[in-house]
């Protein structure tokens, strides 16, 4: 029996040594942040907004117990300050992850897979100083909540089903769905958000994605009155041969149950085109880019329909730091004679 | 006691998976008359620092696992196993170099995270074929990016550059 013990200990030492070569349990830290300087001018050139804002500061913390079991979290401070309704401190992600080669599970505070930016929103990943308004009002980025998800990979397709807390029906307005996010704060689970997504990555440099999201959003936490929400979106991103192109389109439908919905349909899109001229000017990455976009938070109300044109230049001295400048106009359909000019400067980073 | 032995044996088999996967990959790639042998290379501190400074990525350990692929007395290729860090988990991959230091084949042996596993796709890895220590590894220009796998793409690309940069410095010391 003693011999058996000795062999067991020897085996254990070998096992630990072998595992140590490729994986060690332990923590990982990351984060991102962005400083913005936003200016807006009316058609007469008068300044209507001049704001300097350290918009987001995020710390990522994760712990890997084993190769399969890990914990991941992100805490976010918005606008550098929290007091009396100003600024926000949010637990944007906090979940246990079980992962194998073919499938995985996440449970906790998670992100639904909806649009390109909801899961991947580190500032060096997108061109503009501010996230596109599409990703704010049509896709309520960053949308996070309590729930769990199952995901898997089949050939070149990544499939994911996320089940989350209900949206808050009373937060839906002619300004769209953004106010309906529960943000994990004492939320309900009567109907549950069902978010099904597929992403295809079979062609080098190209990512094609789409999702369908359904929920009966209770009004003031009472399921007898609700708004049925259906969100459908498609997205594409291409990054090869120095060409950077992004396209997203989404449509949200709303229907009241024992309740009059304040709107029926939101829709929008944006298209970004950029070309990396970094090698021409001998720097890491420098992209002049152009964006055209429409955001209609209520397609039946002209004052809620906006068209955007934007030009910008983004410079990455290293891949994790981006300096950004952009210039554009926003034209509201009900007031086309008074477009707003927007000029933004920004610095973003991630690690 | 039976249970503890069973757990230990199971763990051992799991830990051995990486080596088995690597050798299966090599046996599939090369004809049966090739001799494939595993070795461990102890990295000299000076060379290690030099390569890390050039590539801006650390070696995972002070040693590297590698395999020689020989036919008769002649070495045809070297396969290096390396670990790089993704967002939070290591990515284990194998680079096979011909004797001139050009990449012949790349394979992601183990990917451990929920996001970014596309770096393991053959069509993406195919881009590195024929790259050597003089190649540019710029993402989006020389190497196509993968949306949603930015960190993994960077880590793997640097990992390849690390091995091709190391090779001419240690070639004479390899078995």
Automatic annotation (TrEMBL), chain B:
InterPro entries: FMN-bd (IPR007329), Ion_transpt_RnfG/RsxG (IPR010209)
FMN-binding domain span: 86-167
Pfam families, A to Z: FMN_bind
GO biological process: one example: electron transport chain
Keywords: Electron transport, Flavoprotein, FMN, Phosphoprotein, Transport
GO molecular function: electron transfer activity; FMN binding
Cellular component terms (Gene Ontology): plasma membrane
The protein's name in its UniProt record: FMN-binding domain-containing protein
The species this protein was found in: marine metagenome
């Amino acid at each position: 029996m003693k011999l058996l013990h000795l062999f067991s200990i020897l085996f254990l030492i070998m096992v630990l040594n072998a595992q140590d070569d490729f994986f060690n349990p332990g923590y990982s830290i990351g984060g991102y942040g962005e400083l913005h300087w936003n200016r807006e001018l009316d058609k007469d050139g008068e300044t209507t907004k001049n704001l300097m804002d350290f918009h987001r500061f995020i710390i990522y913390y994760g712990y890997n117990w084993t190769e399969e079991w890990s914990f991941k979290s992100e805490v976010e401070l918005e606008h550098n300050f929290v007091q009396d309704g100003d600024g926000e401190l949010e637990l944007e992600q906090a979940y246990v992850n079980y992962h194998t080669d073919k499938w995985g599970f996440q449970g906790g505070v998670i992100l639904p897979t909806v649009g390109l930016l909801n899961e991947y929103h580190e500032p060096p990943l997108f061109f503009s100083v501010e996230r596109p308004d599409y990703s704010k009002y049509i896709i309520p980025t960053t949308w996070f909540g309590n729930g769990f998800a199952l995901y898997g990979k089949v050939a070149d397709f990544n499939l994911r089903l996320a089940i989350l807390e209900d949206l808050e029906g009373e937060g839906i307005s002619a300004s769209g769905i953004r106010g309906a996010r529960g943000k994990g704060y004492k939320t309900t689970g009567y109907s549950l958000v069902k978010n099904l997504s597929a992403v295809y990555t079979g062609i080098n440099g190209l990512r094609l994605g789409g999702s369908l999201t359904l929920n009966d959003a209770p009004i003031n936490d009472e399921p007898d009155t609700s708004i049925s929400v259906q969100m459908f979106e498609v997205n594409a991103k291409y990054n090869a041969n120095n060409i950077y192109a992004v396209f997203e389109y989404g449509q949200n439908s709303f229907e009241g149950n024992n309740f009059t919905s304040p709107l029926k349909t939101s829709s929008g899109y944006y298209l970004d085109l950029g070309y990396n001229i970094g090698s021409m000017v001998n720097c890491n990455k420098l992209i002049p880019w152009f964006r055209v976009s429409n955001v209609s938070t209520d397609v039946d109300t002209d004052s809620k329909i906006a068209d955007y044109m934007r030009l910008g230049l983004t410079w990455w001295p290293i891949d994790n730091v981006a300096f950004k400048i952009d210039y554009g106009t926003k034209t509201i359909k009900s007031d086309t004679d008074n477009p707003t000019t927007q000029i933004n400067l920004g610095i973003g980073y991630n690690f | 006691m039976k249970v503890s032995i069973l757990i230990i044996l199971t763990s051992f088999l799991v830990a051995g998976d990486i080596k088995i996967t690597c050798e299966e990959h090599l046996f599939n790639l090369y004809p049966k008359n090739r001799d494939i042998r595993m070795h461990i290379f102890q990295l000299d501190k000076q060379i290690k620092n030099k390569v890390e400074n050039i590539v801006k990525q650390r070696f995972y350990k002070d040693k590297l696992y590698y395999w020689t692929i020989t036919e008769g007395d002649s070495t045809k290729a070297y396969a290096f196993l390396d670990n790089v860090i993704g967002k939070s988990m290591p990515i284990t991959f194998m680079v096979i170099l011909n004797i001139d230091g050009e990449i012949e084949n790349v394979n992601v042996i183990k990917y451990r995270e929920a996001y970014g596993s596309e770096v393991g796709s053959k069509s993406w890895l195919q881009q590195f074929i024929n790259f050597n220590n003089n190649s540019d590894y710029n993402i989006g220009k020389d190497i196509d990016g993968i949306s949603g796998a930015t960190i993994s793409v960077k880590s793997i690309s640097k990992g390849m550059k690390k091995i091709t940069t190391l090779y001419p410095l240690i070639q004479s010391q390899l078995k």
